[in-house]
Design brief:
4 helices; SH3 type barrels; alpha+beta
């Protein structure tokens, strides 16, 4: 019998446990997560999304974090400018306009419900 080092054994145990609980293997889980994720630029007016990740570095990332774009924050697309960019988003009680090149680097998970009246 082959004996695994402790950390590999623990990893394999966790992977197997995830397969038992979800009924899917790790590759299927990864594919499902990729399907659920999209960029903020992809949500339509009146739709809700939750921020998962900011793909920025340095001062630009810091600026967006200061504006309240933190992982887990709910974002609602409110209105679009006549030329399509920027788009106004309701974020933590404020209305913030973001350019398309910025929103294309913000990874979100779309919420299923749409605002009423849209």
């Amino acid at each position: 019998m082959f004996v695994y080092p402790n950390n590999i054994y623990i990893y394999l145990t966790i992977v197997k446990l995830c397969e038992v609980v979800t009924g899917m293997n790790s590759r299927e889980i990864s594919l499902q997560n990729e399907k659920e994720q999209e960029v903020l630029a992809g949500i339509g007016i009146g739709e809700r999304a939750r921020i998962l990740e900011l793909q920025f570095k340095g001062a630009h990332r810091r600026r967006l974090l200061d504006l309240g774009l933190l992982p887990g924050t709910e974002v609602i697309a409110v209105m679009k400018s006549p030329l399509g960019s920027p788009i106004a988003y309701a974020i933590r009680g404020s209305l913030i306009a973001l350019r398309r090149e910025d929103t294309s680097k913000i990874i979100v998970k779309r919420e299923n419900e749409k605002l009423k009246g849209e």
